[in-house]
Specification:
Chain lengths: 158, 158
Amino acid sequence: MFGKFGMEEVPGAFGTSASFALRLGQTVFSSASLLFMCLDVDFYAYTVFCYLVTVMGLVIPWSITLLVVDAYSVFIKCLPHQRRLIFMILLGDMVLSYLSLAAACSTAGVTDLLLDADGSYCPPKLCSRYQLSAAMAFLSWFLSSASCLFNFWIFPSL
Amino acid sequence: MFGKFGMEEVPGAFGTSASFALRLGQTVFSSASLLFMCLDVDFYAYTVFCYLVTVMGLVIPWSITLLVVDAYSVFIKCLPHQRRLIFMILLGDMVLSYLSLAAACSTAGVTDLLLDADGSYCPPKLCSRYQLSAAMAFLSWFLSSASCLFNFWIFPSL
């Protein structure tokens, strides 16, 4: 499981097809989270929901950019692993994965509190959308943190 | 900044004095978070506060154990870096750092919501204790995640 890979062969690291799949998943889940939270919902009323929307608004362009770069690397021409490039990707992934986890957790916590408060704050239909949005943000965090770990794995050998 | 270190010389990795300092900080901050939340506060009323208390109850023994092991390694006899041992420490640190971040964020989100709700749910003195507890949990997360990253840095070379 933890054998020595060459730096090109680590699945999930930048430029591989596994990384492409991870980025695709991040794009899908973060977009779903944003849509569940935004569409027809008055999310401005709560600070944490605004925070979730802000974070997802950062994660989506980041994931799409790297999705395109990975697609280029997989299908057209393999890009070299430059130390500086991997470091920037690593840093961005780490920051965004922590931000998504923070957003997902605070959304889940607040939704739970709103559900407990005898239904006056949160009609069931709305609350289930908040929950779905938090779940999607968790999935997006999970994939983003997987990307981060795979890139971190190859980084010391560069 | 990212020169090649030998595996023994990475500051902050298992068995170094920097790691000892990190573990000490984790122990102090997680205990402070637990005490701010528990002492004279009716935290059972909210799910997320119970979650914070549970997580801190896991982080404290973990930090203390590794504090003792690091102290042994620094002051008495340098322990070897076994691959299996570092992997277990790495895994534990990663899980606990994610759990602390989740607890800190959900506590901060719920406290913010309680503060917004016209003061009826949360007297100012109580709310400031919740905030302090969340801040301490954030600091504990930060140190825990630093430990995790330093150990992850040396892991591929083992």
